[in-house]
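Dear Dr. H.,

I hope your travels went smoothly. While you were away I took the liberty of generating a structure for the chain from your last submission, since the lab meeting agenda had it listed for discussion. I wanted you to have the full record in hand beforehand rather than looking at slides cold. The sequence, exactly as received, is reproduced here:
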Amino acid sequence: MRGTLVNVAAILLGSAIGLAAGARLPERLQRIIVTGLGLSTLLIGIQMALKARSVLVVIASMVLGGVLGEWLDLEGMLEKAGERLKAWARTDSGSFVTGYVTASLVFCVGPMTILGSIQEGIGGEAELLYAKAMLDGAASVAFSASLGIGVAFSVVTVLVLQGGLTLLGNRLGFLLEPEILHELTATGGLLIVGIGLLLLDLKRLRVANLLPALLVVVLLAVGRRALGW
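The corresponding predicted structure, in token form, is as follows:
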């Protein structure tokens, strides 16, 4: 869990710096920061998505995962969690839930989260999570400067998800096999593209409802390997 704890500390530190800086930034500078983050997020997502070896598996995962996510209403669950945290924090920030949901998705959807957590869970090596901590810390500065204190509370999601993956590391080692990892990375990349569109305010996508695609793609990739396709 050391890697996750360091990651949490980095996000909190970055958020504190961003909040202090954001109070002094005019709105137009805050908007351009979000635009830069959105374009960068799109680039990262596209690079990840292009790692797909079977486009059909990725497409099927996105469709089936989206249907499952809509049925479960994961977006609503995440927003309700943000509302509860907002009430607990006793803040009137209008962007609290947006900052919490956006940061939670950005910090938890990606190969470094999965790879780093599983590697630490299997062998205790947290170097990849340390690298992720530095990236997340830097991103949290920009996010919190424009989206507010809700970004800091994304550490709750990071702690639960990333910590959970670490504790289950020994049982999830099969996810590191190339034929599974490539499709998982590509599917995560498409989710990150969706986050980029949200940041650019181009399209209001319910990205959280697509999260089950990450589970579906693993099942399909395992089935595809078992059938020798």
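Two observations you may find useful: The CA atoms of residues 56 and 62 lie 10 Å apart. The longest helix spans residues 27-49.

With kind regards,
E. W.
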